[in-house]
Amino acid sequence: MPRRDFLPPAVCDVCRKRPALGDTLWHSGVAWICPACLADVTPGDDALSKAAHENVQSDEYKALSRRARASGDIENADDQQRQANWHGHAAVALKSHGNRRAKNALIASGEAAASPGYLRDTLANPDLIAIESSEMRGKLLLTNDVVALGIDVANTIGASNTLEKLLAHEIALAHKIAFEQAALASSGYEVPMAMKRLQISIKMMNMAQQGMLTLHKLRTGGTQNVVVQHVYVADGGQAVIGAVQGCKQDEK
């Protein structure tokens, strides 16, 4: 995506908006486009995936250019190389745009909040992968209508890393499904269907509990602590080891 020798226009030809601070309009060969619009039309769910897609495209055009040059078709080789350069520059633009967006991500309840346009709050040490992973978790919570419960569980267990947050969200979703299925089972369904819903509810409850055990194993390293107590008895003394229950004195 090489820059032209002349100055770009003030606004993007696609969205008709000025590029965000730090972004630059690029010429696609047809129109001037901002990185935000480029991201919208590039396949992928996040900036890293989009940049990777463009890098793959660049490599494919480079291979075509080498083949054309080897066969003596210099004009076609030059065209393919220009396409390779375009996609290579697009990958850089997409990743740079994503990094700038990460630096301006809004953190709410320990997760990155997706919002249109540029956000105001900034992070001290932003990381693109962490921000986009957090946004993806937020979207999944929203899609499954378990945002509040998922974040509350994560806050309750004091989730400090991605694995613990994923477990917290899975526990919340399993809990939600369990109670929804239990409610449906008692809503007048025929017995076979009600039994199936109850079985799903029980499985989801077991999964939630299993998630809690997994969290415990992660935090303890999957080990058990055995406490050994040493009892020292002096000469002439007596000791009783084990549970001792009180007893009444024999009545005279």
E-strand count: 4
| Whole-number tally of structural domains | 2
Q: Give me the side-by-side strand order of the main sheet.
A: 1-2
Rough shape? elongated
Q: Round the Cα radius of gyration to an integer and report it.
A: 31 Å
Characterize the main sheet. 2 strands, antiparallel
Distance between the termini: 104 Å
Summarize the structure.
By secondary structure, this protein is mainly alpha-helical. It contains seven helices and four strands; from the N terminus they run ββαααββαααα.
Write the SSE topology.
Elements (H helix, E strand, L loop, with lengths): L25 E2 L4 E2 L1 H7 L5 H24 L3 H30 L2 E3 L2 E3 L14 H16 L3 H11 L4 H24 L5 H30 L32
Antiparallel strand pairs: 1-2, 3-4
Give your account of this protein's structure.
The protein is mostly helical. The protein has two domains: 123 residues, no CATH class; 77 residues. The chain is 56% helix and 4% strand. The protein has seven helices and four strands, in the order ββαααββαααα. The strands form two sheets. The chain has a two-stranded antiparallel sheet. A two-stranded antiparallel sheet has the order 3-4.
Write out key terms for the chains shown:
disordered N terminus, mainly alpha, two-stranded antiparallel ribbon, 56% helix, elongated, 252 residues, 2 domains
